[in-house]
Task: structure prediction
Amino acid sequence: MTAIRRFLPGWLSSYAVLYLLFLYLPVIFLPIFSINTAATPKFPLSGVTLHWYEDLPRTPALIDATWNSLIVGVSASILSTVLGILAARSITRYRYPGRRAINGLIMAPLVLPEVIVAISMLLVMLQLGLSLSLFTVVLGHVLVCIPYSMTVLTSGFEGFDRSLEEASADLGESAFGTFRRVTLPMVAPAIISSLLVCFTISLDEFIIAFFLTGTEATLPIYIWGQLRFAAKLPGVLALGTLLLLASFVLMTIAEILRRRAARRTHNEGGLYA
Amino acid sequence: MTAAVEGSPPLRVAGLRRSPLLQSEAVQGFALISPTFVYALILLVLPILVVIAHSFWTQHYLTIDHTFTLENYRIALTEPIYRDLLWRSLYISLTVSLLTVALAYPIAYFISFHGGRHKSLWLFLITIPFWTSYLLRVMSWKVILGYNGVLNSGLMGLGIIDEPSTALLYNSTAVIITLTHAWATFAILPIFVSLEKVDRTLVEAATDLGDGPLRSFLRVTLPLSAPGVISAALIVMIPTVGDYVTPKLVGGKDGVMIANAIQAQFGKASNWPLGAALSVTTMIIVSLMAGATVLVFRALQRLAR
Result:
């Protein structure tokens, strides 16, 4: 019996390593083939080159798509974080009837098929006479970003010591003053973390942008268009590698900030705990 | 994440009037959440209602006839092409969710029970690939499974096969593999959270009372973590049924799913009401399948005890 008990963690940890390989291996092929001289992605590499990367800044359509993605990402992350702050604060601070139902509705985009969310929004926007543009993409991205923003923010707001706010109120600070001078500094890391998470999601989001954009392409839409041409694959892989890197850096910063926020409010839970 | 799956508590309006303090708290809380709530109403609830309305109408070239009809649902449910796509989508999403949960459980168990001080590092490592673009992850599977892909050239290099196999890409298996990879993180996190809540003293008690590791796992840990397993299965099942990118990129002709047909109705075919009816049908059927899955899991949970 003790043999089993000693053997089990070993078996489990080798499984864990294999599982991480399964998670990471596919992603690692993108950077590997982005420095290959041949256009077809196969081993062994025919030679190492950076010229797929050098070509990127010389593609006007790509530059436009990058700007569009930045505009959409920044607008969507700010809007969804503002809406997320209001909702997360309300959920963690107040008790009222219907609170869980409203929370469920706000979190729902997380578990609905994206295509169905996208086409429903498309129908309404066309009915309202809105012409499809980057603005409609922002509206769509905000809806799908709010649940993530809420998750990050509630983890930062929960366990928040309410006596500090009460002390501030007792000492004569107004409600707004208390929020600005006591609450905000404590939750600032969570807010920045939410901004980064939402920006990353918007930067990588394809389906909603695909349905709700007019003629302007975001980066994923640009990539989608390029995928039709086999010869352009290395360029797409190079661009993909840069996007991976950007997401990785942004998410690492977001995670560090979120943990700092959780520590400040004495909350030990993980992102989804 | 599980909040969306949970039901809503009954409204208790009477409690509002009882105390002025409670009333002001309720009003403040509601006022604070209302912008986000209204946003979700306008961009989620209203659109879904509009889709449901459209599903009962008819497309006449450029105009839409607003007379009530069930014709779109008849087409969605009886036309062989849509029936097949629907079945395939359900089969793929059920397989993917069961596979993802089965593969995710051991890793969630490992992190929760043997993660030690490195728990959050493990969780972070597992979430990272999820934060990379979905489109790019699907694309990398195309690179792996393709005719000239990594797997084929690898197998040929090892002398296992003589010529590239075409069986790897452009079929439902390729879709299942890609989706299982893409949704892994979504399954691990809810299972991990519910394993964290398992009272360790109960496991010890089972061991003290003579249960072996396997028996105490099957009779204590597994049933107690069932809520996480259920929500993991649902979190994977419902969105994957409507996946568009994966079948389009790696599915080929045999891997097309219902979302591709829905998109076609809003694009080339330009038949919004039929597209709407297909969307509503998909949502209803996947909800039924999700409900059935919950019942099966609950029954298994009772059996284990």
